[in-house]
């Protein structure tokens, strides 16, 4: 990850960080990730995400359809993405690797 310099905008810094999060896509001021995992993995992931989200005072949207878990991070109300939301996405990736063993 690049270091934040005074001449760079915060938005550019967050965009750089997002490029390191493989599988996440940006939709306006939200980021989204779809994971193909089973019900047991979904439950374990959801619990891990809840712990991190509570610590960061954030509320990601996690939904389940068929064999897919969809996660959205961000407000969606026009507020820009924050460092905490990008950090949450990175922690979700860590939790995903833990529950899937990959």
Automatic annotation (TrEMBL):
Its EC number is 4.2.1.96. The keyword Secreted does not apply. InterPro entries: PCD_sf, Pterin_deHydtase. The keyword Oxidoreductase does not apply. Keywords: Lyase. It catalyses: (4aS,6R)-4a-hydroxy-L-erythro-5,6,7,8-tetrahydrobiopterin = (6R)-L-erythro-6,7-dihydrobiopterin + H2O. One of its GO terms (molecular function) is 4-alpha-hydroxytetrahydrobiopterin dehydratase activity. Belongs to the pterin-4-alpha-carbinolamine dehydratase family. This is Putative pterin-4-alpha-carbinolamine dehydratase. It comes from Micromonospora harpali.
């Amino acid at each position: 990850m690049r270091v934040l310099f005074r001449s760079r905008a915060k938005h550019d810094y967050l965009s750089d960080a997002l490029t390191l999060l493989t599988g996440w896509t940006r939709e306006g001021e939200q980021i989204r990730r779809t994971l193909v995992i089973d019900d047991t993995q979904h439950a374990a992931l959801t619990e891990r995400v809840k712990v991190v989200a509570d610590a960061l005072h954030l509320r990601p949207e996690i939904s389940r359809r068929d064999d897919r878990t969809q996660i959205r991070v961000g407000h969606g109300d026009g507020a820009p993405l924050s460092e905490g939301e990008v950090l949450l996405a990175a922690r979700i990736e860590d939790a995903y690797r833990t529950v899937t063993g990959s």
